[in-house]
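request received
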Amino acid sequence: MKVAEPAAVAVAYNEIKSRAESRWRELANGDKPVIMVGTATCGRAAGALQVLKTLRNEVKKHNLDCPVVEVGCMGHCHAEPIVMIKKPGYPFISYGYVNPVVAERLVKEFLLGDDPCLESVLGALEENDLVPSLADFPRAVYEKKIILQNCGQIDPTDIDHYVARDGYAALARVLQMPPDDDVINEVKKSGLRGRGGAGFPAGQKWHACRSTPPGPRYIICNGDEGDPGAFMDRAILESDPHSVIEGMIIAGYAIGASYGYIYVRAEYPLAVARLEIALRQARKLNLLGKNILGSGFSFHIRLFQGSGAFVCGEATALAASIEGKPGTPRPKPPRMTTEGLFGRPTVVNNVKTLAFVPPIIRNGAAWFTSIGTKDSPGTAVFALAGKIANTGLVEVPMGTTLRQVIFDVGGGIPKGKKFKAVQIGGPSGGCLPESALDLPIDFDSLQDAGAMMGSGGMVVLDEDDCMVEIARYFLEFTQRESCGKCTFCRLGTKQMLAILDDITLGQGKEGDIDTLLQLAEDVKLGSLCGLGKTAPNPVLTTLRYFKDEYEAHITEGRCPALMCRELIAYYILPDKCERSCDACVGTCTVEAITPNKKRIKVIDQEKCVKCNTCLVACPPQYNAVIKLSPPSEVPAAK
Amino acid sequence: MAEEAEKIRRETGRVLGRFSRKRGNLIPILQKVQHRLGYLPREAMLEIARFLDIPEIEVYGVVTFYNQFRRNPPGKHSIRVCLGTACHMKGGYITLDAWKRRLNIGQGETTADREFDLDTVACVGCCTMAPVTVVDDKPQANVEPTRVDGILLAFEREREKKHKENRESS
Amino acid sequence: MKTVSLTIDGRKIIAEEGTKLLWVALDNGIYIPNLCAIRSSPEPAAACRLCFVEVAGKEAPVTACTETVAEGMVVNTRGKKALRLARSAFELLMASHPVDCAGCPANRSCELQKISGHLKVKLKTKRLRTLLRELPIDDSHPLFTYDPNKCVLCGRCLWVCRQQLGIGVLGFAHRGFQRVVTTFADEPLGQSRCQECGDCIAVCPTGALSFKDSAKPAARAVKI
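response:
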């Protein structure tokens, strides 16, 4: 490698930066209004594209000089589609739950008129006297955005937006440093731990790779976010792809690699599309490719689409997949850092780990260690889902308690239901009960409690969720996603699943819990790779904290949460059923409900498929449909 | 049949023309061929094995390993029920049952009229919209059994509309 | 040749540096159960999980096929923790294996029987549920029969077919519990490019690949 030419790099970067800044100023502080629409996958699922179309049509129809910009995910997924409007003379306001009708009104009433449509406001993005700002929301007390900082604030398909907000400044700085251990030392000092789940120190990994004999090395960005219930990586790739690309180039420079792969799930088509655009734009500005910014350092990134196999999140399986083979893990050692992709030293880092690199370089290691806990510095990003009011993405400093995340940031459990457990870390993690809520979150505390940071999926469960069923669900998942190579994972998880299937079907027998526990311990200890080793966690934690639910299923044939379908029956309370109402009869998908002579509705238990539709349909003032467990609780028809 | 075989040969050839004969290209090749044909027919797999000079069983091993690859022609509309954690806890499995019941097919199958194919997907990351069904690559929020009927009705209407237009134009 | 000295089950042994523990033990007459280990393969599969042993100083048992011998290493192949894992793995294999020794061509030469004796685990497990795959038996080849239900997925047959003979008729396909040794598109072996050398049958540790009675040649050893 040529010695870097600091001056040339600075000149080249400043040129890019000043052009980007002037474009950004024009948009953000110009004299014309701007509309931003969150069109990440979550927004799209809620109808953001129709909203976008309506807004564009309206703007065109009224001949408004007002750019309509697509942005990524702000994290408030529960309120999607989200629209943000910046109009001169008004604060920057975000609107939630926008549909085409509201969108039309926003243009007509607010942009053309002077009514900022306060009834649809989510919050302002800056302090002002007109509307409450998002920063005053209770959740803002706990939130600290580092890698989500740009998400939902910039157009991910416009590199200038990223550059204007200090993007690629870290790269420019690194390229002016000599290619020795300075960068690695900074990352080491920051204490950055891998955000893929295990929390291995990133700097140490880079160091190990750099210490290998000269020759080709690779860096892989692991975006194979396969955990059901996790969508942090997707949101970052869709909303701020350049932060990951910049982190990767810096990592490449630090470890002496010239090639990198971004491995993204094919199930994330939008992330793939936005990454492709971002890579193209970065190459065009010479931030990527040959002789980056005139520094003499060349780095190339290829996008590889995973084909749908959870096990490919495991580094050796991921590498096998890029090599064109089935994603079966191999035994370690040799570690990836000595023998990885194509047999060459390779660093595999998670999307979030890489996204942390630019801010660490920009602000210094000391800044990073001032956030979070001593052994887990920085922030954690969680995807909140399940029975929680504010579903979406949150970023909080490590050390925040689960209670703060779930109740203060997440807004607690909706519909007045009672919190039962939180599932953290997906299929590799575990279910933690109420008693663990005051646990400060970091890599080590979660592991001690039997869960795992995993990649950061957090699914909240309430009193209606059966813990045996959730364990069964995760095991069914790992069992289906097991590569099948090693005995414990292929057959051990299958045996465990068979036991759990029986228990949830009411066919559990004495001794099942013991066998389950023994198998779980053996699979955990004896499996070849991380997938198998962590697969028993959901079972082990639910057995540890909710054993009574297992016992109720086995000994009484009863599902305490009224969830396991074979163990429940739907029943209409005759004294609550309203004679004049037919809501359930009309919605029943299999015509199992008929009115009796007194026009009280009765469910034919033989026909009922337990689809829950009648329970939803029954108007809340009657609440006549209930679930009973065991099914023998249903009174015999008179 | 001959027409289909010709199409498979032509499209596979077209994809292969854009790749070098490196083993590492196997998965991108399979993805591109499936993108064009909708599935990976036997002949395409054989052609790819010859191109990369690897035993055909190795192509088969890869195709059967990954969820993304299908060996049967798909339906006109693809229905993918998300079974991620959030969707499961909010009744994704009940939604799957509803699709099975309405389409009268099982998971991984295509209806006899080749209109719909039904499958599950591990997680599309739209957990906040649970339960999600991805209909023709578009994630649909809160798909409960009644929504299933609604979506099918919309397709039915569209078909009728097209039918009518065809009749009127002819 | 550089050597190291180590102790296995109390016996002092001199071994070539860099060798895997499993081969050192086997070469010195100390049996450690194994199915998927292939000496000529550059990388252990470490798939069958039967060769667990305990190494002094290591908290958890390790697989002998992946553990490189080291100077002063003290190995116990009969440790309680290691045996628990090996037995559990073996029970899992047997719970998904149709046990019909009397009617099986591999009876008495079957490695599963040998392992069962060594680990003192019954062939028919009571603790676990029987989970069979019920795959069709391939009888299409004139010389031999392939019963995938009896296959333990050790990978020896495909190793000889591909790596040693360069034919590559057999391979792994599917995933998880459905993982299977098969041919392209699961086509009958009788229609495949099989060159009838019979090496795969010779290396099969169970009765999954077996000669038809009429075709049975004299037993021969194939080195892998």
